[in-house]
């Protein structure tokens, strides 16, 4: 425990930092983009539409080029793309309030950028799926990053499509029910819309044998809905007992073109996966309840499309279905719309459960 005087100094510095951030935000929020693939190029257009100032762009490709030109904007942005190894220097000059991190899905792959942002006293919003609720899937690293962000009086959170569709949509159904014993979700998205990292995470291009070797129960990384399932359980006030998952390959029955791979996935190759994730929990009355999510991510062909459907089993039993949501657009807009609440939040790792529903 900190001595009383040290604790008071820490609180004083935190209040000073947050006042400065809020003052800066009120006079014009300054945003950095870390990762400049397909997603953050869309985020850039959304930020400009909201008249937010983009002051830094970090990426491995097209270093030194104008970010607006690379994103295909009508006019140059006046901000050059900087290599990640120079991120801290750019942050020291540009003074962003917040960075939107769109690179990889898992917390261990985001650790370097997150540490660099925290040490530069920059708040972070990431669309990396595990960061949505990583307390159980990466507890040690989550604790370390939480402490680092607290120490530097800044905040980081995870958001994206799952913010509204895999968390608040389901909790709204529970909110209009008398009792709920089980929640079931069926959701699908096109991995070809998100780039190589997501395709690799879903086994795209592997043979079924290679898929089985990669996605064993012992070495499988958590499916994206593992983290959203647990976030939902926490949102509902349920005590998580265990979470388990099963991965199933989706195999091409015809030749399918992949824009990400830049070629054809032939018959017999894996085009994605289905993950069935089950979270068993205990509700406020001590009764065992369950959240079961069926997540399909695959390369689309013909008439395949995104969807998200939730059903509850209880009194009454309810169902809600969202056909063809713009999953990419929703993911990017969610990151942009979380900016002000993250700047105003307490320091550390703060999940959107604490930040409240998007408005």
Automatic annotation (TrEMBL):
Q: Where is the 2,4-diaminopentanoate dehydrogenase C-terminal domain?
A: 171-355
Question: Pfam family example for this protein?
Answer: DAP_DH_C
Q: Which residues form a coiled coil?
A: none
User: InterPro entries recorded for this chain?
Assistant: DAP_DH_C, NAD(P)-bd_dom_sf
SUPFAM superfamilies membership = NAD(P)-binding Rossmann-fold domains
Q: What's the protein called, per UniProt? A: 2,4-diaminopentanoate dehydrogenase C-terminal domain-containing protein
This chain's source organism reads: Halteria grandinella
């Amino acid at each position: 425990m900190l001595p009383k005087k040290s604790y008071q100094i820490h609180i004083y510095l935190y209040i000073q930092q947050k006042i400065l951030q809020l003052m800066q935000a009120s006079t014009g929020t300054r945003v950095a983009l870390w990762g400049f693939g397909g997603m953050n190029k869309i985020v850039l257009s959304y930020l400009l539409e909201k008249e937010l100032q983009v002051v830094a762009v970090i990426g491995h490709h097209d270093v030194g080029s104008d970010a607006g030109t690379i994103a295909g904007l009508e006019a140059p942005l006046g901000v050059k793309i900087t290599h990640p190894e120079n991120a801290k220097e750019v942050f020291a000059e540009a003074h962003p309030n917040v960075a939107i991190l769109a690179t990889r899905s898992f917390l261990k792959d985001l650790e370097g950028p997150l540490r660099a942002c925290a040490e530069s006293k920059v708040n972070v919003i990431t669309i990396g799926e595990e960061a949505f609720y990583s307390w159980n899937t990466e507890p040690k690293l989550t604790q370390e990053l939480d402490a680092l962000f607290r120490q530097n009086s800044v905040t980081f959170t995870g958001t994206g499509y799952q913010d509204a569709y895999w968390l608040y949509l389901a909790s709204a159904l529970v909110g209009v029910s008398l009792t709920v014993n089980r929640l079931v979700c069926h959701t699908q998205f096109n991995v070809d819309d998100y780039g190589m990292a997501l395709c690799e995470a879903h086994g795209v291009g592997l043979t079924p044998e290679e898929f089985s070797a990669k996605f064993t129960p012992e070495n499988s990384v958590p499916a994206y809905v593992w983290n959203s399932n647990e976030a939902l359980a926490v949102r509902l006030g349920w005590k998580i007992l265990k979470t388990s998952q099963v991965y199933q390959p989706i195999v091409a029955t015809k030749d399918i073109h992949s824009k990400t791979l830049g070629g054809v996935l032939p018959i017999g190759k894996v085009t994605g996966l289905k993950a069935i994730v089950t979270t068993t929990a205990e509700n406020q009355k001590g009764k065992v309840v369950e959240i079961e999510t069926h997540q399909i991510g695959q390369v689309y062909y013909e008439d395949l499309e995104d969807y998200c459907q939730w059903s509850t089993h209880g009194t009454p039993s309810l169902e809600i279905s969202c056909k063809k949501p713009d999953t990419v657009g929703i993911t990017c807009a969610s990151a942009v719309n979380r900016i002000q609440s993250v700047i105003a939040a307490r320091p550390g790792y703060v999940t959107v459960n604490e930040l409240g529903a998007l408005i």
